[in-house]
Specification:
The structure is a single chain. By secondary structure, the chain is of the alpha+beta class. Helices cover 49% and strands 9% of the residues. It is globular, with a radius of gyration of 21 Å.
Length: 400
């Protein structure tokens, strides 16, 4: 799964897995030195995600068997945050995380996105071309996260650089260097908020009644920036690619006779090509038989959110036409007690980011056809290396 051929067309790989191995559980290599079992059945994934007693998310026993410099270890290693714990520890961390996220004023997201989007658009609107990953989605998502977390721009840039190294095995930094950069930057942010809390997600973490220490606050911020930055920018870019490629989202709406909404496009991407394609690590705490396969204790079980969403066993049942219109039954945000608590916020940010861009630059077209786009290698994400578009040159927009 670390091979560039997998990144180029993972759905071919998932189909081959079903043909050659097993309809539910497949042995895979996340890294040359890391074996895992990939869940490709929707029903099996739901079962595992809702059974933390037999499938906890604590990797500490497993990670003692993996060299420190193994690239995927930085993504999978334990932190004192909700997604790595069960029971009372999970409740304590999740309560703090949910309170921190719920404190975000969703009524202000549109204005926040606009304030960040317009200066970014103004930098490329007069050129007639842009890379929407580097020139738009990267800066927009980072800017929104920084505002939500009360993070100064300079600290946020260091976090973003480190996060990219954790996901992208072609980064100039190793995953371990990326982690060190993230920790240094976020610890600096935490110290600032301890000294002077404000109305932001980081301050709500440091002042929460759960009394999280600095390492625990850092672990929760890691989840915010890890999921928020990588997932959100890829969700925005992947959805823009779909909307520019597919006539149903164009000026005439194709067979539907109208434009389909941005929200519909987001759901279609979350079904077909979720930006976090393989995630939700689980580690059986004892030998357990699942669908005729004996899973060994403490060996990673990884849910393929992309493969499960496209499981032939449910595909016809939930969506006979394959269009996903009005269908939000995907598992792109996980499931069970560890389902992403920022799901509504992620939708809100992505929708406003896309709508703002189309309002400013309505005539964009992709520079390359879909089969010539390049995808970043890596076992976990579904992410374009770049997404270049062309359009009629425009004057800069005025800020409100």
């Amino acid at each position: 799964m670390y091979d560039p051929n997998f990144a180029a067309d993972p759905h071919v790989a998932y189909a081959e897995m079903r043909r050659r191995y097993h309809p539910s559980l497949v042995p895979v290599d996340l890294d040359p030195n890391v074996r895992a079992t990939l869940v490709i059945s929707h029903a099996t994934a739901v079962r595992i995600l809702n059974d933390p007693e037999h499938f906890p998310s604590d990797p500490r026993e497993w990670q003692t068997t993996v060299p420190q410099d193994t690239p995927v270890r930085a993504m999978m290693a334990y932190f004192p945050a909700a997604r790595y714990n069960t029971g009372a520890a999970h409740t304590r961390y999740r309560d703090a995380s949910v309170a921190s996220i719920d404190g975000v004023d969703t009524n202000n997201i549109n204005t926040l996105v606009e304030d960040i989007a317009i200066p970014l658009i103004n930098k490329f609107c007069g050129k007639g071309t842009a890379d929407l990953m580097a020139d738009y989605a990267f800066g927009l998502v980072l800017g929104v996260l920084n505002r939500i977390c009360g993070c100064p721009e300079e600290i946020g840039e260091r976090v973003a650089t480190g996060m990219a190294a954790r996901f992208d095995q072609r980064s100039t930094l190793t995953a371990q260097q990326g982690m060190a950069m993230i920790k240094e930057a976020l610890m600096e942010l935490i110290a600032r908020k301890r000294a002077e809390p404000g109305d932001d997600a980081t301050s709500r973490l440091v002042t929460h009644p759960s009394a999280l220490d600095d390492v625990e606050v850092f672990a929760n911020l890691m989840s915010f920036y890890g999921a928020g930055f990588e997932l959100e920018r890829n969700l925005i870019t992947n959805t823009l690619e779909l909307m520019l490629r597919d006539d149903r989202y164009g000026a005439f709406g194709g067979d539907y006779g109208r434009n389909l909404s941005t929200l519909t496009a987001l759901d279609e991407v979350l079904f077909n090509d979720p930006p976090m394609a393989n995630f939700c690590f689980r580690y059986p705490n004892r030998p357990v038989m699942v669908d005729g396969v004996l899973l060994q204790p403490h060996e990673p079980v990884v849910v393929s959110l992309a493969a499960c969403n496209n499981d032939p066993a449910i595909r016809v049942e939930v969506d006979p036409g394959g269009s996903h219109i009005g269908n939000r039954s995907h598992v792109a945000f996980g499931g069970g007690p560890h389902e992403c608590p920022a799901k509504p916020l992620a939708y809100e940010i992505a929708q406003h980011a896309i709508d703002q861009l189309f309002a400013a630059v309505p005539d964009m077209t992709s520079l390359l056809p879909a089969d010539q786009l390049e995808w970043r290698p890596g076992p976990f994400h579904r992410a374009l290396k770049e997404f270049r578009v062309v359009f009629v040159k425009l004057p800069p927009m005025l800020m409100r």
